[in-house]
Design a protein that fits this description.
- By secondary structure, this protein is mainly alpha-helical.
- Helix content is 56%, strand content 0%.
- The chain folds into 2 domains: 150 residues, no CATH class; 135 residues, no CATH class.
- It is built from 16 helices and no strands.
- The chain is elongated.
- The two termini are 44 Å apart.
Length: 288
């Protein structure tokens, strides 16, 4: 139903924000109402996977895309009854590009006319689509919502790991995992020492410098016959299942459980081979 209204009308920002709140709450909690702060800003969640997002459609941008499509239909005089009505009773043989919103204009027409400003800086794209006789919504969406690729985006695409493991990896890439150093910043803890080795627990330290986790890395890579030493987070990001397993191992230690590193290693290895192609995916990422 929401998608239908987005296609037909310029929705008020307050309405779109309320829909976003429902989506955001469901993503992070599984319910439609949540009061706590989200780990990652919704604007980042709505970015393309290559840009570090989850590929969730940004409703405000999507609504603008469809208002541009309505403008396109009017410009090209598509044969539907509504377009004929606009040309007959509203434009009266005037080019819509020259029309300014009137005081008594309907909110739908004002929403459509506001999109004329998009065409100026993107006139080449607009004219190309008009010449081909087809509007490309994906191209318009990407123009309205530009962004830069993240160095780690290839790990998210076609990843065969479990969804929960991919989400933990994604949070780690954004430096949003609830490490002790982050919890201290938000006054949720007073001690930022790593529960495994008593050094300051940051994401970089925990996954690449902590001796306990480095031993897990070593065992995993040895088992899948990959000669590789993880170094820096931004340059050599780890695959999802290993990150997820290491994070679970850390959580167990921090919350007082008796954790066996060998069991953690075997669990990760079992998961890697259980997923079949995940080992090939892992080897390709690390050796590329």
């Amino acid at each position: 139903m929401a998608n239908y209204w987005l296609i037909c009308f310029p929705l008020p920002r307050t309405v779109i924000r309320k829909i976003d709140v429902i989506y955001r709450s469901f993503l992070w909690s599984g319910i439609v109402s949540m009061s706590r702060k989200s780990p990652v800003a919704w604007t980042n969640v709505c970015k393309h996977v290559k840009e570090g997002g989850l590929g969730v459609v940004d409703l405000l941008t999507w609504n603008k895309c469809y208002m541009l499509k309505l403008l396109w239909n009017i410009c090209n005089k598509s044969g539907n009854l509504w377009v004929k009505w606009v040309h007959t009773y509203y434009l009266e043989k005037t080019n819509i590009m020259d029309v300014k919103p009137k005081v008594n204009s309907t909110w739908i027409m004002r929403g459509i006319l506001e999109q004329v400003g998009f065409i100026g800086p993107n006139v080449a794209v607009w004219n190309t689509m008009r010449a081909k006789g087809k509007i490309r919504m994906k191209s318009i969406y990407n123009i309205l919502k530009p962004g830069a690729d993240k160095s780690w985006h290839r790990l998210m695409k076609n990843n065969l790991a479990r969804p929960r493991a991919i989400i933990i990896l994604w949070l780690a890439c954004h430096m949003k995992l609830a490490t002790k150093s982050r919890l201290v910043i938000f006054d949720l803890m007073t001690n930022s020492e790593c529960g495994l080795c008593n050094k300051e627990e940051t994401i970089q330290y925990m996954f690449f410098e902590c001796e306990e986790i480095k031993n897990i890395w070593s065992r995993i890579l040895q088992r899948i016959q990959v000669n590789h030493t993880p170094k820096i987070w931004d340059e050599e990001i780890a695959p999802a299942e290993t990150i997820y397993g290491a994070w679970n191992f850390r959580n167990g230690v921090c919350f007082g459980k008796i954790m066996d590193r060998e069991i953690a290693v075997q669990d990760i290895i079992s998961r890697l081979f259980l997923e079949g192609g995940l080992v090939r995916f892992l080897s390709h990422i690390l050796l590329d």
